[in-house]
Every structure is written in structure tokens, then in C-alpha cells.
Design goal:
The complex is a heterodimer of chains A (115) and B (111). Chain A is mainly beta and 115 residues long. Chain A has no helices and eleven strands. By secondary structure, chain B is mostly beta strands. The chains are: A mainly beta (115), B mainly beta (111). At the A-B interface, strand 4, strand 5, strand 9 and strand 10 of A face strand 4 and strand 5 of B.
Chain lengths: 115, 111
């Protein structure tokens, strides 16, 4: 089945540790996105990538890093510089064009907690 | 600038209609969307409307767009307990640009 797979579903981070959240899509979409969701805050954009080997910062990029070496993969690293990483992280993808209507498709999310 | 506003909570009785409202500020928006999020899950696209349309109906869902007032609404007819979720309004200016989301409206359906 085509879709977006995020792993792991739950992740725990120790103080000072970097952790990486995986996002893989087999929809052949060009663009991929990372959002952070906190209760009552809605979705806030962390990073996005419109094409392989290129990405842009979103509204809350500090303390996070990404790479886009392959079209189907867009991993997010939460670094030790992110002092409040506890949140629900959502990955999405989209493709351009009139038919596609810029619809974003979402993964099931990763819940990150601090130990 | 871009901003999308929604009320945070709505409570309705099972069988009644629910109306969730949204206002947006970017007049260059090309598509507007409604997404649904169930507890602990990702977002699921419910429906979308192109900015040159006034209304779109899809089974129990009706979307109304007032472009002059930049107001979007989602009506759910015959609301069921399975409709309890958070509903997000979002806007797009097209291409592969990020969507701008509202903070979400939590719909509670009372049996």
C-alpha cells in the first residue's frame, strides 16, 4: 500500500542526547514536511523540503536538523539544543500540480518524551 | 501575513448537525482544506475546496466558502460519536508550499 511511514511510534530521549525520527514515503511525492504538535498549539512547521538535497527552515527550526538524500526519506534529528522536545511529531508529503491540489498526506506520528 | 483562526471547542448531541468555522487572512489562497485528527493519530484529509467555489458537498459533509469575508465552514450532518475528533482548517497558496493550519477545533459528540 502507498503511504507515509513514521518510526518509531514512541521515542524517549535522555538529557543531552540527539535522537532521529524516521519518515519514509512510497507515494513518489516531491515535497516532504515536518510538523510539531503541542496541545492547544495546532501544527507548527519545523522544516520542509521541496526537492532532493534541498530543504528550508520552517517557523520553529531551532534545535532540529534534517537531511534529504533520497526522494522517499526525510529524517528529523532532535538535537540536545532543543530544550523542550516533548511533543507529537508529524511528517507529511505532497506533490505539485492541478490534479494533486497540493494535498498533504500525513504519517501516523511519533510521540517523543524526555526521560 | 498568513493566519488561520478557529474556535477551540464544539460540543453537539448525536444526530444534530455540527458547524465548524474558520477564518483565514491570505487572499492569495488557492485551496482550503479540512483535516480530521483522531486521538494519537496523524491527520486525515476530509475534503478541500478550490478558492473559486462557494460550496462543496460530499455525503454528510458540506463546505461553504465566503471569499469576500475569508470565512470557511464545515458542516457535518447527522453527527455521530465516531465524528469526535480535532478538525483542522488549512490554506494553501499552491505549488509545493507548506500549508498554514489553524489550531484545530475539538468536536465532542454527546450520545
Amino acid at each position: 500500500d502507498g503511504g507515509i511511514t513514521q518510526s518509531p511510534k514512541y521515542l524517549f530521549r535522555k538529557e543531552g542526547q540527539n535522537v532521529t525520527l524516521s519518515c519514509e514515503q512510497n507515494l513518489n511525492h516531491d515535497a516532504m514536511y515536518w510538523y510539531r504538535q503541542d496541545p492547544g498549539q495546532g501544527l507548527r512547521l519545523i522544516y520542509y523540503s521541496q526537492i532532493v538535497n534541498d530543504f528550508q527552515k520552517g517557523d520553529i527550526a531551532e534545535g532540529y536538523s534534517v537531511s534529504r538524500e533520497k526522494k522517499e526519506s526525510f529524517p528529523l534529528t532532535v538535537t540536545s539544543a532543543q530544550k523542550n522536545p516533548t511533543a507529537f511529531y508529524l511528517c507529511a508529503s505532497s506533490t505539485r500540480g492541478e490534479v494533486a491540489k497540493n494535498i498533504q498526506y500525513f504519517g501516523a506520528g511519533t510521540r517523543l518524551s524526555v526521560l | 501575513g498568513e493566519d488561520v483562526e478557529q474556535s477551540l471547542f464544539l460540543s453537539v448531541r448525536e444526530g444534530d448537525s455540527s458547524v465548524i468555522n474558520c477564518t483565514y487572512t491570505d487572499s492569495s489562497s488557492t485551496y482550503l482544506y479540512w483535516y480530521k485528527q483522531e486521538p494519537g493519530a496523524g491527520l486525515q484529509l476530509l475534503t478541500y475546496i478550490f478558492s473559486n467555489m462557494d460550496m462543496k458537498q460530499d455525503q454528510r459533509l458540506t463546505v461553504l466558502l465566503n471569499k469576500k469575508d475569508k470565512h470557511l465552514s464545515l458542516r457535518i450532518a447527522d453527527t455521530q460519536t465516531g465524528d469526535s475528533a480535532i478538525y483542522f482548517c488549512a490554506e494553501s497558496i499552491g505549488g509545493n508550499t507548506p500549508l498554514v493550519f489553524g489550531k484545530g477545533t475539538r468536536l465532542s459528540v454527546i450520545a
